[in-house]
């Protein structure tokens, strides 16, 4: 999605004349939901000023050079945001009950009893099917990912962590470094697993990632071996990109799945 510009005006307006019904309203709800823990040390989130069927107005932010201090603060803040929780895995942001999107691709946010079942059926398999239908992924590769989805759905990777309040599309382009620290934009917010946000940052890179991860792991109390699960949490972004961006993402998707199939 679009990054927030640094031009010196009061707000930034994002528009899309053919936006699906509820597209910007869902984004606004996600931003407001993620912003709630800010007063308790959560990650900073861009402020929503106005929203309509074809636009969303956001506070304009001034970009600046990333620093390790800002990365560490973001790691600690993400842990607080995630810890604010969600009603269930797959639950949408508070105030929104309609459709969901990641970027401009549709996805569902249906509350589910376990993380693995939600992740397999609502985050990985739908995009694998789209990639297969579009010829971006072959049948053999799809079977490899499906085997991992079977394990996910069976609960093989579930842990005792409750549903986290996650950004859901946390690649580096949705982290804007400002003079006052990092600010999150453009979420696909829902109840999920905190490692999913870290996995997307790791997949596409982020300034100060190592310091961010260390600060997060300490603040969130992650168990030893959490890094081994990062490729599992990258299946969703890899599948979405295989669906929308083409076959170049098929091999990394299958490679990530092979570690768990």
TrEMBL record:
InterPro entries listed in its UniProt record: Fructo-/Ketosamine-3-kinase, Kinase-like_dom_sf
Keyword Nucleus: no
Keyword Electron transport: no
Signal peptide: none
A single MF term (Gene Ontology): kinase activity
Entry-linked Pfam families: Fructosamin_kin (PF03881)
The entry's keywords: Kinase, Transferase
Family from the record: Belongs to the fructosamine kinase family.
UniProt protein name: Fructosamine kinase
Source organism (scientific name): Terrabacter tumescens
Top-level taxonomy: Bacteria, Bacillati, Actinomycetota, Actinomycetes, Micrococcales
């Amino acid at each position: 999605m679009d990054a927030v510009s640094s031009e010196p005006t009061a707000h930034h307006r994002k528009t899309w004349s053919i936006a699906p019904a509820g597209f910007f309203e869902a984004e606004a709800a996600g931003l407001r939901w993620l912003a709630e823990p800010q007063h308790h040390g959560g990650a900073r989130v861009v402020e929503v000023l106005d929203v309509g069927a074809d636009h969303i107005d956001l506070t304009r932010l001034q970009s600046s050079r990333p620093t390790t201090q800002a990365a560490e603060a973001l790691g600690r803040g993400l842990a607080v945001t995630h810890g604010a929780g969600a009603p269930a895995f797959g639950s949408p942001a508070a105030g929104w009950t309609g459709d969901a999107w990641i970027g401009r691709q549709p996805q569902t946010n249906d509350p589910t009893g376990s993380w693995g079942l939600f992740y397999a059926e609502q985050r990985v398999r739908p995009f694998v099917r789209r990639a297969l239908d579009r010829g971006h992924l072959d049948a053999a590769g799809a079977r490899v990912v499906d085997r991992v989805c079977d394990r996910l759905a069976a609960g093989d990777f579930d842990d005792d962590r409750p549903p986290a309040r996650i950004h859901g599309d946390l690649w580096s382009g949705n982290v804007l470094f400002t003079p006052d620290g990092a600010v999150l934009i453009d979420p696909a917010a829902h109840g999920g697993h905190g490692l999913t946000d870290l996995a997307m940052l790791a997949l596409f890179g982020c300034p100060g990632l190592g310091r961010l991860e260390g600060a997060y792991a300490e603040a969130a109390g992650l168990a030893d071996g959490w890094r081994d699960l990062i490729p599992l949490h990258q299946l969703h972004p890899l599948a979405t990109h295989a669906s929308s961006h083409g076959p170049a993402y098929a091999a990394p998707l299958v490679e990530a799945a092979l570690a768990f199939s």
